[in-house]
Amino acid sequence: MEDEDAFAKPLGRQAVFFYGVGHMLNDITSACWFTYLLVFLTDIGLPPRDAATVMLSGQIADGFTTILAGELIDRFGHFKIWHGAGSILVAVSFSSVFGGCLPCKIFCSNSSTLQTVGYSMFAAIFNVGWAATQVSHMSMVNCITLNSTSRVVLASCRNAFTMVANLSLYGVALAVFNSIKPHTLVDVENQYRWIAYLLKKGVHGKGYARISWSHWFRKVLYYQVALVYVLTRLVTNVSQAFLAFYVINDLQMSQSSKALVPAIIYICSFFISVMLQEFTWTGQRLKTFYSAGGILWIVCGAGIFFLPRNMNAFMYIISVIIGIANALMTVTGVSMQSFLVGEDLHGCAFVYGSLSFLDKISCGLALFFLESHGNSSPNPNPNPNLLGRYSVVGFFSVSRYGLSVVPAVCALVGVAATYTMNLNTPAPKPVREPLLLA
Question: What is the pTM of this model?
Fold first, then answer.
């Protein structure tokens, strides 16, 4: 009975803190992946379709690994082993994603096809490690505590440290972009290699009787939570991927804005994530806060879509609102998964793995479609370095659509889906065996 009471009580701040810092390596590399990968690949001369192919290959590898990792974790446990092994693979492989093209050096050729293959290979390896770390870390939430409020607090703290990790990325990026001026192709490559290198330097379980996949497929809430989570990730990831293009090429802001605007977003998200830890959480409150974040993103999307170049200073105000909206949607969207899992702990890794699979594949396809579509469009701008060459219809570019229309529509659908949910605050059940912490 004492064990049952202990797992149902709110967690202490120390336990929440240590859980939050456990995903920072993944967070900082993910921020660099979504923010600068497409910029880097197109800057070194790779066609937009090939750059999108590199990202899609990584997303596909990530997606299938989340399913495999979730299944194996549910069968055998070993949360910390999966987390540690995945983190090591991420640390070892990440700098190669922004490094030189290894097959190009071996075959002494710089063809776009060989470059695409080379960068895709390291992108896939990096994302395998990333997925293993993510699934094991997210699944731990349900095995650390049965308290529904503490589960939201853990997700909120994790998101807060995600913002800290992202801010460190943009601090490094700001210093690199200001110190290394890209006069040649080699200078461009060196910029992103230095960012990747600086970022990189920056227990045994037991077998469990897993819950069948069909258990989750019979639940309507599973599909509702999956839809909301995927839409939330589309909002954050697609907007992050096109933010640097938009501020530099559409608004023609300074090069430092590639780091400064995202930094403002993450500072605001950090403070909101910290504030969310002070609430007592119910299913209805989750829905309310998610809807508030979605509505804010819709407003931001409209502002970004119609923002003229001569009023680019307003982007700093919009970035504050985006930061608030991202925190509200991410924390509550992830926490809905814990409400779905409840006390069904022996299948929680599959839930996180399957939803992450849908997230990775949908984001990869969305970015591939946007980049590929832009590649076939005319170039109304004489400057080849500007994303105006990705123009879709006159004044409006792919980056403008990717940063405004796509996130706003996803937020709108997410809010509608949240409204249909029946999120009951779970009452803790008796603990029949110790919760898995290893």
Answer: 0.71
